[in-house]
User: What shape does this take?
Amino acid sequence: MKEAIAQLPEGIRERLRQAGRLADESELDLYLVGGTVRDMLLGCARADIDLAVDGDGMGFASRLARRTEGRYTPHARFLTATVDLPEGNSLDVATARGETYERPGALPRVAPASMDVDLARRDFTINAMAVSLNARNFGNLVDPFNGRGDLRSRMVRILHDQSFIDDPTRLLRAIRFEQRLRFRLERETERRFREAVSGGVIGNLSGPRLLEQLRLICVEPDPWPVFNRLERLDTLKAIHPALASDDGLKTLVQEISRPGDLASSAYDGWWILYLVALFRPRREETLHGIVDRLKPNRRLRKAIEDMSRWSGVEQSVQSGRIDTPADFYRAVRTISEDTMLFLTLTHPDDAVRRRCETYYRHHRHTRLSIDGETLKELKIPEGPAYGQILDEVLSMKINGEIETAEEERRAARDLWSRRNRPES
Ligand code: ATP
Assistant: This one.
């Protein structure tokens, strides 16, 4: 294990030694835990480092923040705290805990406990290892379930038979790790997996907990194999019957994964696009069923619902009722940015896709240089005409009939005088 620690960047290693010394002074046992140990043994770099203390983790984290001149952020509900180090890394410090489940699928009741108990409440053997950081045994691996052996044989294995029943989120976690790491479910684990799914345990999970697991799949570097495997294990249709077999999903996921220069680096809705691909409603009831089940946040709900609003727009585009770019702009401007990006990336009809793209890239950002003040300067009397004139000038700009601020002013003036010209 010492070799694995030796691979860490020198700065982090020194911080871990410093944390170990502080734990010694405080007479606490301190460990690296969970995914941090797994990834270190696999030689994968990761940004977040998880620590656990056999004792008061939050108190320890606060002292560690002072010692390192870092920033301390407590999360009291979870008995954890984050220390943001001055050089940019962060350490998540937890109090070692045990968990009890009052009923399958419920959130566990958490209470401080020893490190052995803490490792035994974890999901898979590969995630149930710890590495000591105290000076006397710095770098020693604690591995009560032979996680290291399973890492070598590339297997995801639960710690006990009830695991998926206690916490069905582990079903989705199992496949996420399996596919990310290119591991396999261990045989007995797969049997328990199938048994749990066919026994309906996913129904015990609340919508938001389930949705969070789906979100985590979507932020994997490659979500498709995860969805594909879940599909083959009948897990998608256990989430909602409408999510059963879907040949088009692979193509959609691939298209979304190749955004080119379409979205800015600040765009944070990729997971929404994957879920829209997964949920894209075939029928209204399906859509309502999914929304009822998963209780998505407002942004995701709007993106899903806007897919059915889009169907109406699409019909009008195809029948020619929506013709000019300005017509299109008006029809889609209240459709969510996520839905429009989804269509731009995935619409099967090239002409429609190009319309979506022009809107997404250019027209949705179009603003006028003139405003109400300009109309006042033009001596147009204030009133409802202002909104209408500005709207028409915007249409002309989107349609490419005018471009400059001066042309906008002229167009506004002409529109006003045309309105006031006596009917001949
Ligand atoms: P990732 O690389 O995706 O961040 P991770 O292993 O760090 O993976 P987290 O969700 O951050 O995963 O959880 C940290 C650790 O907490 C896990 O490694 C595991 O030991 C434990 N854990 C997380 N979720 C569960 C769960 N549902 N049941 C049991 N243990 C869990």
